[in-house]
Write a structure and sequence with these properties.
single chain; 68% helix
């Protein structure tokens, strides 16, 4: 039987998002494979987390490309981005809270590329007058990550319907970022 590595990673991410201290035995069970199979693919927790990071980066890059961030207004591009990020939200929720990924000089350069692309979207929205200029693009980028992660946890716990994920995140973020016209 062939093992779908990405499916194993998604199962691991779903568990680790809810229980960061899960053992490799628990991860294997959640991923639907034996512990031996899990260890054949990932020598230990660090290798598993790094593989999850690589998958998350690929998913983010694909979402950024699919969202066509340079087309139309910035708010509409942001709505498209949130929609495209939704399938990877659980994985991103885990990665955003995995401190080992952001320590020292071993941080993957892929995060910087993603951060730059998202911040550029917010910067474009500021330059066009759509978004407030008193909130930095970096802060708005972090707010997006936080909302996507929180939304993923809420969906996983059954507190929010999957169909409401994109709308609620995009509208909350855009509502807070929208530039108000002075009276």
């Amino acid at each position: 039987m062939s093992v779908d590595r990405d499916q194993v990673l998604r199962g691991a991410a779903a568990l680790l998002t809810r229980k960061g201290s899960a053992t490799m035995d628990e991860v294997a069970k959640a991923a639907g494979v034996s512990r031996a199979t899990l260890h054949r693919h990932f020598a230990g927790r660090d290798a598993l987390v790094r593989a999850l990071e690589d998958l998350g980066l690929r998913e983010c890059e694909l979402a950024l490309d699919a969202a066509r961030l340079d087309e139309g207004g910035a708010a509409d591009a942001l709505r498209r981005l949130v929609k495209e990020l939704q399938p990877a939200a659980g994985l991103l929720a885990f990665l955003v809270t995995e401190n080992a990924l952001f320590e020292g000089e071993s941080q993957h350069e892929g995060w910087s590329r993603i951060d730059t692309r998202v911040a550029e979207l917010f910067r474009r929205g500021q330059e066009s007058g759509e978004f407030r200029i008193d909130l930095t693009p970096v802060w708005l980028t972090e707010a997006l990550y936080g909302l996507v992660s929180s939304g993923a946890w809420a969906v996983l716990d059954g507190r929010v319907a999957t169909k409401d994920f994109s709308y609620m995140i995009a509208e909350l973020l855009i509502g807070g970022a929208r530039r108000r016209v002075e009276p």
